[in-house]
Amino acid sequence: KYFLLVNSFDFGGEIFYHLRYFNGTFYGVGKSLKNVTISDWDYLDGAGDSAPIQRNTLYGYGLICRASGATVTDFIVENFNYAGPEEGNDAYVARNLFMGGIIGYSVGANTILNCHTVGIMDSSNVTYTVNSYKPRGGIVGSHYASGNTNPLIIYRCSSQYESVARYTVARNSMSGGIIGECYASYLYIYDCVAKLKDTDICTLNTNITCGGIMALAEASKKIVIE
């Protein structure tokens, strides 16, 4: 399906429910979403005031938690504030928490064009205790498409954000200006710019990986950054 953002919206003082999963085309046409605050990571399973509220268990956290086959273009996420999330009871959910300014977890082919984010990812209210992968990125948290050639394309995007997290584990804090992690995938980043401030509160020797564009590439098929 196709979606068009015809007005800018200010969510200051409002509850904002993220999109749990998206595989359509979203045209922002230069509009903005302002003061998006997300802290509990519940989502509305349906439409209208009577829609039941469900807990997100997709490992991705962001304006769009998980995307596959999606195109997102031409909009601004201004002054976002993403908190948490807490480690889940499920072992995989506890280990893998992917947070992005627009998309938390990119699976398969996705395209992001001319999008811009400004904000903070602040998990100082949570202490992460599980040896884990918790990548963060100003546009995308993590891209994973193992076993196929589906790429993530990010073109003319920018991000300015601060990442704050608290750890008692011995590894894997990752923050990237545009994307946190690319695993076993194809990634193309063109004409992007980012400014990142990373603050990690660690009680053990945590492996802290930061990058102006990307923090970590692991077993990736092809990566182009120009």
Mind explaining what this structure looks like?
- The chain has one helix at residues 91-95; strands at residues 2-4, 9-10, 19-22, 25-34, 37-38, 42-44, 53-55, 60-67, 70-83, 98-107, 110-113, 116-128, 134-137, 140-144, 151-155, 158-167, 173-176, 179-183, 186-190, 193-202, 208-211, 214-218, 222-225.
- The chain is mostly beta strands.
- The two termini are 31 Å apart.
- It is 2% helix and 61% strand.
- The strands form three sheets. Strands 1, 2, 4, 5, 9, 11, 12, 15, 16, 19, 20 and 23 form a twelve-stranded parallel sheet that branches. Strands 3, 8, 10, 13, 14, 17, 18, 21 and 22 form a nine-stranded parallel sheet that branches. The chain has a two-stranded antiparallel ribbon with strand order 6-7.
- The mean pLDDT is 86.
- The protein is built from one helix and 23 strands.
- It is globular.
Can you give keywords for this protein?
mainly beta; 12-stranded parallel β-sheet; 23 strands
